[in-house]
Amino acid sequence: MAGGLTLSAVLTAFIALVLVHETCSATAKVNHHCAPSSCGNIHNISFPFRLKNDPEKCGESSYELSCDENNHTVLSLFERKYYVQEINYNNYTIRIVDSGIQKDNYSSTPSYSLNRHNFSQYPSAYTTYLLKRTEYEGISFSELSWSVVWMSCEKPVNSPFYLDASTCNIDNGDQYPSNSSISHFKRYRYVKVGRTNATDVVDLCKVEQMFITSWPGNDDPSNISCADVHNELVYGFELSWLRGFCKS
Ligand SMILES: *[C@@H]1O[C@H](CO)[C@@H](O)[C@H](O)[C@H]1NC(C)=O
Ligand SMILES: *[C@@H]1O[C@H](CO)[C@@H](O)[C@H](O)[C@H]1NC(C)=O
Ligand SMILES: *[C@@H]1O[C@H](CO)[C@@H](O)[C@H](O)[C@H]1NC(C)=O
Ligand SMILES: *[C@@H]1O[C@H](CO)[C@@H](O)[C@H](O)[C@H]1NC(C)=O
Ligand SMILES: *[C@@H]1O[C@H](CO)[C@@H](O)[C@H](O)[C@H]1NC(C)=O
Ligand SMILES: *[C@@H]1O[C@H](CO)[C@@H](O)[C@H](O)[C@H]1NC(C)=O
Ligand SMILES: *[C@@H]1O[C@H](CO)[C@@H](O)[C@H](O)[C@H]1NC(C)=O
Ligand SMILES: *[C@@H]1O[C@H](CO)[C@@H](O)[C@H](O)[C@H]1NC(C)=O
Question: Which residue numbers delimit the Wall-associated receptor kinase galacturonan-binding domain (predicted)?
Fold first, then answer.
């Protein structure tokens, strides 16, 4: 496990550096005199982003967004649908939210499980960390998100870091159809927010689903409420498109 993680970290860094190189070259090459495009609440869609029907010379195809019939700005990531909440050109981040989440519906959950390793499995135009180059530290990474993990356990867990999911009115789908052998055991469901590594997963617990969030509202992982969990999911998460590396 440790070996696997290290390898994927190295691969991520490698892919990031390749992409930085490509993005920087592209930035240098492209002469982008295109008026910003607009969709719904996102009024400033400009280089490197483009909207699907923009003139071909505008933006880059790897940063193409689309505008759906409800005026949501849509980013397709791993062939899944995410809604764009905010594009920050000052720090090269884009904040997106799973299209399955409904703001006012506390029972809604993301449609797709997502964790930081998804981004190291395939080359992606986005990273889950910000790459910075400073004069003194060289290249440094800072993570833009942390995880929200749904777990199911065979025994009750008494830990301030584990929120009892049965107190939240959240329907995250029945992972175990009633005729499967595992359903003969009662399972206890928990939500854990924050950095979670293998040693944090208590014995007899199993990760069911993972999401990521950048919600700045509660930075105390031992004191989260059901409302916090909903807010984490509704806020979504930031990704970086790496141009910062070129500019600084
Ligand atoms: C839109 O984004 C561009 C960077 O691509 C920036 O120069 C411009 O100031 C932004 N405009 C607004 C209104 O935020
Ligand atoms: C989408 O935005 C356009 C332009 O602002 C507007 O004319 C249209 O009514 C909007 N559609 C919906 C479903 O809100
Ligand atoms: C990027 O900028 C936005 C808007 O100013 C801010 O909300 C967000 O926290 C910033 N992200 C980082 C990683 O600094
Ligand atoms: C709220 O979300 C749940 C779970 O996705 C869904 O079953 C329910 O229909 C939604 N309620 C409304 C009012 O949309
Ligand atoms: C992320 O990876 C997990 C497996 O590690 C997979 O189940 C999930 O569908 C992936 N998410 C997306 C959005 O592709
Ligand atoms: C459990 O039920 C589902 C649908 O009801 C069925 O497709 C599946 O084959 C069943 N599994 C077993 C192990 O009987
Ligand atoms: C996992 O987290 C614990 C504390 O939560 C920490 O002590 C430990 O060093 C971490 N392990 C790894 C491999 O990061
Ligand atoms: C936990 O959070 C609640 C509100 O979110 C706050 O009132 C309470 O003081 C916090 N408790 C601790 C021990 O930090």
Answer: 34-98
